[in-house]
Design a protein that fits this description.
The chain is of the alpha/beta class and 239 residues long. It has helices at residues 41-49, 73-79, 96-103, 119-122, 132-146, 162-177, 193-196, 216-226; strands at residues 3-12, 15-25, 30-34, 55-63, 66-67, 81-84, 91-95, 125-126, 150-154, 182-187, 200-205, 208-213. The protein has a single domain (3-183, 194-208), classed as P-loop containing nucleotide triphosphate hydrolases (Rossmann fold, 3-Layer(aba) Sandwich), CATH 3.40.50.300. The two termini are 18 Å apart.
Length: 239
């Protein structure tokens, strides 16, 4: 097991956000975490990476057999955890090409198979006047440069049309899943799952994972028809 989260309770801004979350991911496995807005999905991602904004009040996070609950973000990143941000910050004065080279020991820009990376994008300041598609490509390139053991994609499909979602999914499959990188896809709509076909789909409501389902199609069918209201009352799935 590469990641194991046990009974995780977390506070942020004085209130409890995660209320006893349990999750296990194997090496090379792809899992999904779905839920409505403000359900705690992004908080979970930040807590796994060690964002000091959030306080763990109970539970344990283990990565590759080590208890990392009290590790800094830097130490967790060095162990091999990477996060693709939903809303990455702008970094003025730093070109994307400079940032990518900083991540690597050898000054070689990462390449994505089957995808042409614009030289104009590489020479732009990081996330300054980026389009939605450019932000996603920038995040993918940064994750590739880090060569992680596990990657969390937080809403990587948000703001993209179906054609671009399919392309992002293809990149994730080729560059991460096929290379046995443990992958967690956090998504609100779930559209990207049609192309990724995760091993397990988790649904989070109000800071708790209320169901785990191997057949992602069942989950998508319910949330497409009833949104997440049905999930709050659902008795089809069990933890």
């Amino acid at each position: 097991m590469i990641l194991e989260v046990k009974n995780l309770r977390v506070k942020g801004d004085g209130k409890e956000i995660l209320k006893g979350v349990n999750l296990k991911i194997k090496q090379g496995e792809c899992q999904a975490l779905l839920g409505p807005n403000a359900s705690g999905k992004s908080t979970f991602a930040h807590v796994i990476l060690g964002n000091p904004k959030y306080k763990v009040i109970q539970g344990k996070i283990s990565f590759r057999g080590k208890n990392i609950t009290k590790f800094s973000s830097e130490k967790r990143a060095k162990l091999g955890i990477a996060l693709s941000w939903q809303n990455p910050p702008a970094i003025k004065g730093v070109k994307l090409s400079q940032l990518l080279r900083k991540f690597q020991r050898r000054p070689v820009l990462p390449k994505i198979r089957g995808e042409r990376v614009s030289s104009d994008l590489l020479e732009k300041e990081v996330n300054v006047d980026f389009s939605g598609g450019e932000r996603k490509m920038s995040e993918l390139l940064q994750i590739l440069a880090l060569k992680p053991k596990m990657v969390i994609f937080d809403e990587i499909d948000s703001g993209l049309d179906i054609k671009r979602i399919k392309k992002v999914a293809e990149i994730i499959k080729k560059e991460f899943i096929a290379k046995k990188v443990a992958t967690l896809i956090i998504t609100h709509s779930g559209e990207i799952l049609k192309f990724l076909k995760p091993n397990l789909t988790n649904v989070m409501i109000n800071g708790k994972i209320i169901c785990k389902e191997k057949n992602y199609k069942k989950v998508l069918k319910i949330i497409t028809k009833y949104n997440y209201e049905k999930c709050k009352k659902c008795k089809l799935f069990t933890n």
